[in-house]
Structures are given as structure tokens and as C-alpha cells.
Specification:
Elements lengths: L4 E4 L5 H14 L11 H13 L4 E6 L2 E10 L9 E8 L8 H14 L5 E6 L5 H9 L3 E12 L2 E11 L15
Parallel strand pairs: 4-5
Antiparallel strand pairs: 1-2, 2-3, 3-4, 5-7, 6-7
């Protein structure tokens, strides 16, 4: 099997993205949402990401969308404008096959081409060792955790924070004109 192909998402990908995410929301612990959003809701979320000039990518294998990722602002306040958060979801049947790694590598490369300086991985379940290892392989370091901040499927869940620099990171101040 050759590796997945990563490309920009399209509106036509959203039903497949909704199915991947809905499964995680309803059965998994990687999202703290408890009601699966509709395709229309996810289309609006995607549009908001793209309107900020941020990437929203899919991984395709054998003509099927098998995972997706995007970057979003960490927080809305202006001082956070150089910090992004990544989100990555892979179809259950395609986990541990290089899909997450291909998506995260492409996402980091796209974000490094922009003015952003930090990327956070906020992992909704501290026991998601695969997600933690994936982020570590791509240069993230664990910077902390919030204990028992989520309650889903009858159990308390931690949130792990991971971080990596983008481009020059914090070595220099950002360009006030929006460049590096």
C-alpha cells in the first residue's frame, strides 16, 4: 500500500469528514463534543478556518477520504494571533497506517509558510498515546495537562497540551505587517 495523498479539502469531502468525526464524537474520547455535528455545521466550521487563511486538509487513500486535519486560532484575543491549534482525525479503520503523520506533516509545512510561530496540540484524552506519540514524532513536546476537565462516556478525562515552534518560533518578534 502506498501512503495516503494529502490535499486541500473540498466541500464534496465534508460528508466523509462528518462520518469520521461523528464516529469519534459518538464512540471515542478524542473529542469532548457529545452530539455529532451535521455536515452543514462542519461546512460552516471549515469556511471559518479557510476565511482566516488557514489550511483544512484531507488524506485520501484508494479514492476515499480517510482522515482530515486543520489549523485554527488557539484563542481569539489579539495577543494569541501567532499561535495555532491543530486538529487531526483519522478513520478508525485507517489508524496506525501513516495517515495521521502525513496529515500533520503537511499541516505543519503549510502553517510554517505563513506568519504563525507556535502550534499547539491539545489532546482531549490524556490516554490517547497514539496521538501523543504522533505529535512527539513531529517535534511537539508535552508542556502540561489539565486533570479531569472533561467527562464523557462515564469517565473523567484529562487534556494534554503539546507545543512546537513554527519557523523562527519565539527567537524574534513577529512582523507587524503579518510576515515572519
Amino acid at each position: 500500500m502506498t501512503g495516503p495523498q494529502v490535499r486541500d479539502s473540498t466541500e464534496q469531502d465534508m460528508p466523509a469528514i462528518q462520518a469520521i468525526y461523528a464516529h469519534e464524537v459518538l464512540h471515542g474520547l478524542a473529542s469532548f463534543e457529545e452530539v455529532a455535528p451535521t455536515t452543514e455545521t462542519l461546512l460552516a466550521r471549515r469556511a471559518a478556518v479557510l476565511a482566516r487563511g488557514l489550511p483544512y486538509l484531507v488524506a485520501e487513500s484508494a479514492g476515499q477520504v480517510v482522515g482530515y486535519c486543520y489549523a485554527s486560532p488557539y484563542r481569539e484575543r489579539p495577543a494569541y494571533r501567532n499561535t495555532l491549534e491543530d486538529s487531526i482525525y483519522v478513520a478508525r479503520t485507517m489508524q496506525r497506517r501513516g495517515v495521521g503523520g502525513a496529515l500533520l506533516a503537511a499541516l505543519i509545512a503549510r502553517c510554517e509558510a505563513g506568519p504563525w510561530r507556535q502550534m499547539l496540540g491539545i489532546i482531549a484524552n490524556g490516554e490517547q498515546t497514539g496521538s501523543i506519540a504522533l505529535h512527539e514524532r513531529h517535534g511537539f513536546r508535552r508542556i502540561g495537562a489539565l486533570a479531569a476537565v472533561g467527562f464523557k462516556h462515564g469517565r473523567w478525562l484529562d487534556t494534554v497540551f503539546m507545543q512546537r515552534e513554527l519557523g523562527p518560533g519565539s527567537d524574534t518578534p513577529p512582523d507587524p505587517a503579518g510576515g515572519r
